[in-house]
Amino acid sequence: MSLACVIHAAHDLRVEEETARALGPHDVLLRLGAGGICGSDLHYFKEGRVGAFVVREPLVPGHEASGVVEAVGSEVTRVQRGQKVAINPSHPCGRCDYCRAGRGNLCRHMFFLGSASVFPHAQGMFRERFVMGERQLTPIHEPEITLGEIACAEPLSIGLHALHRAGPVLGETVLVTGGGTIGCMTVLAARLAGAAQVICCDINDRALSIARTVGADRTVRSDQVNAAQLADIADVSIEAAGSPAALATCLTATRRGGRIVQVGTLPPEVAFPANSLMARELDYRGAFRAHLEFDWAVQAIRTRRVDVRPLISAQLPLARSQEAFELALDKSRSTKVQLVAEA
Ligand SMILES: [Zn+2]
Ligand SMILES: [Zn+2]
Q: How far apart are CA 84 and CA 46, in angstroms?
């Protein structure tokens, strides 16, 4: 028996005992290494839904996890018992037109772990033990790379995908709105991509101090400056806060002919000054989840080309899931809170 964190409805989170299913030939039994609590997990916890995805049956959240291999199916070749692994939560179908065109993150039949986007729900990884197909796994051989860092591969992949969507930024100034986990991952990705200057803005001092730690050259309290002070400061702006005010900042801050990438989830209705896109020839692009960038993220973390350690603010055992979710909700105290299996 092992423990699982299960959301039954808004503010109804339970820690339950369960037994992992039997292994098929290409399956791997994993013990949770670390599982990061993400904004979408917090929405399920607080509201019982993320946008249109509503919890209709008990849901185990969690899509940012690492693991340790406990047992392998008869045909498994990618990993071995005892290895640390990165886990890609994204299961595109591989058959639809988007998958065939190499854009698996836009798959028509996506199965993404820890999500109520499908029914029955895609059960996630906030559990002490779970079974995963070997093709989702990448072994990490470096002894010094921690399970907590490996679990950051998924959120880093979101930052890398945002930069991928932005196009080349070599020598450019990139503004990132939002200094939470995704904002900071985007700062890291912008540096990797060769941006000459990375500016991060937020309304929280703690977030900005972490953004500086991971390499933002300049940080701005966006609630303490006026719009004119931010005008035309960036070639590319990446909206990673999910707030209409942050989007407005991006529209002001981006120079004529520049690009804006939307990564954060905005409220359903947002007033949008579309004429400023027209008159200033701005490109406004979306970035949704990630695809090839997951493997790039794993590579960047395993070599510490990117150091995600400053983002991990706490690790709590699964039995204390409720407390971990409450802590993750409090942005004045935490960036990335992770759940771990009991020692
Ligand atoms: Zn996430
Ligand atoms: Zn597909």
A: 32
Task: Assign residue 277 the CATH number of its domain.
Answer: 3.40.50.720
Quote the ligand 1 centre to 320 CA distance (angstroms): 20
- Residue 100 vs residues 95, 135, 241, 279: alpha-carbon distances, Å: 6, 18, 32, 36
Question: Do 241 and 147 share a structural domain?
Answer: no
For the CA of 35, the nearest ligand: 1
pLDDT for residue 152 is more than 90: yes
* Ligand 2 geometric centre to CA of 89 (Å): 15
Question: Ligand 2 centre and the CA of 112: distance in Å?
Answer: 12
Domain ranges, residue 70 = 2-152+308-340
CB 179 within 8 A of CB 147: no
Residues 145 and 174 in one domain: no
If asked whether residues 127 and 58 sit together in one domain, one would say yes
* Nearest-ligand number for the alpha carbon of 328: 1
Task: State how far the Cα of 295 lies from the Cα of 281, in Å rounded to an integer.
Answer: 33
As for how many domains the chain has, the answer is 2
Identify the CA nearest to 252 among candidates 230, 236, 273, 282.
Answer: 230
CA distance 71 to 45: 31
CA trace torsion 6, 115, 129, 294 (10° rounding): -150
Q: What is the mean pLDDT of residues 300-326?
A: 97
Spell out the residues 6+ positions from residue 214 whose beta carbon is closer than 8 angstroms to its own: 184, 187, 188, 307, 308, 310, 311
Q: What is the pLDDT of residues 26-46, one digit of tens each?
A: 999 999 999 999 999 999 999
Using the mean position of ligand 1's atoms as its centre, give its distance from the Cα of residue 46 in Å.
16
Q: Are residues 257 and 327 in the same domain?
A: no
| Alpha carbon of 164 to ligand 2 centroid (Å) | 20
**Centre of ligand 2 from the C-alpha of residue 315, in Å:** 34
pTM, to two decimals: 0.96
Residues with CB under 5 A from ligand 2 (ion): 92-93, 96, 99, 107
Q: State the distance from the centre of ligand 2 to the C-alpha of 107, rounded, in angstroms.
A: 4
